[in-house]
Specification:
The chain has 258 residues and is of the alpha/beta class. The chain has two domains: 115 residues, Rossmann fold; 106 residues, Rossmann fold (3-Layer(aba) Sandwich), CATH 3.40.50.1860. It is built from eleven helices and eight strands. It has a four-stranded parallel sheet, with helices on both faces. Helix 4 links the parallel strand 3 and strand 4. Helix 2 runs parallel beside helix 4, helix 3 packs parallel to helix 4 and helix 5 crosses helix 10.
Length: 258
């Protein structure tokens, strides 16, 4: 049987670049090694023809600027690994770790390593909130106060007003940090209800290791306003960067708009 190669060509030289999976877009994801939520949530949201390819960076110790900076130092290596899979978009899937100077350094390293569009979770969140017309935010997080302060400073630097912020106080130790990923979506629902204020235009639920997908639709109906989560916003921004505009029902109005 003929290989399909022409004279002088090696067998397989004319095969398409795309595999069966990811024929529409390949998303490359970098997550903190302890994160057990972002991959399954993004995989659940991925439309037909969109595949997810992941690598991990070690995030050790308690939550701090220093631990996020140390993790980000491996971004270039992780980007090079994803580039070998010919991904269309590279995602840096950490909310607090992609703010401030750490975020700038990570974006630069990934852009140099991959030559692909780079989506960080913090950038995705601010873009999503602007897209929804939100200016005044109620913010729910699983974090300790020090990380909440980083989040609030970042959002205010981006021009938003944080009218309320509340966290679960998790992350001071490695064990407590891993416990974020053990929380059921009902925890995010209860915390979002608690932190919401009448003057808030939208509620933002932070952290890519905090499960939210199951409750976003119910929260929007019960609160009567948009609700944005880290993973939902990251998926929205990554799909747009890949040129995929598929409305996804049931996970908040951001994704329903495509």
């Amino acid at each position: 049987m003929s290989s399909g190669a022409g004279p002088g060509e090696a067998p397989g030289a004319t095969l398409p670049r795309r595999s069966y999976y990811g024929w529409r877009a390949r998303l490359g994801l970098i997550v903190p090694a302890l994160n057990v939520v972002m991959e399954p949530e993004l995989a659940r949201l991925a439309p037909a023809g969109v595949s997810l390819h992941t690598t991990r960076l070690l995030l050790s110790g308690g939550a701090s600027v220093e631990s996020y900076r140390a993790m980000g130092e491996g971004a270039r290596r992780a980007g090079e690994e994803l580039a070998s899979a010919e991904v269309d978009v590279v995602i840096y899937g950490c909310t607090a770790g992609s703010t401030g100077e750490e975020g700038y350094a990570v974006r630069a390293a990934l852009a140099a390593a991959t030559r692909a569009p780079v989506v960080t979770t913090s950038d995705a969140v601010t873009a999503a909130l602007r897209h929804l017309g939100a200016r005044r935010l109620a913010v729910a997080t699983p974090y300790i106060p020090e990380v909440n302060a980083l989040e609030q400073a970042h959002l205010e630097h981006e021009g938003f007003q944080v009218v309320a912020i509340a966290g679960l106080g998790l992350g001071a130790t490695p064990e407590s940090r891993r416990a974020i990923g053990h929380q059921p979506p009902s925890t995010a629902y209860a915390l979002a209800r608690q932190v919401d204020r009448p003057e808030a235009d939208a509620v933002f639920i932070a952290c890519t290791n905090f499960a939210t997908l199951e409750v976003l639709g119910a929260l929007e109906r019960d609160l009567g306003k948009p609700v944005v989560s880290s993973n939902q916003a990251t998926c929205w921004a990554a799909l747009r960067a890949a040129g995929v505009r598929t409305p996804l029902a049931g996970f908040g109005r951001l994704l329903e708009q495509g």
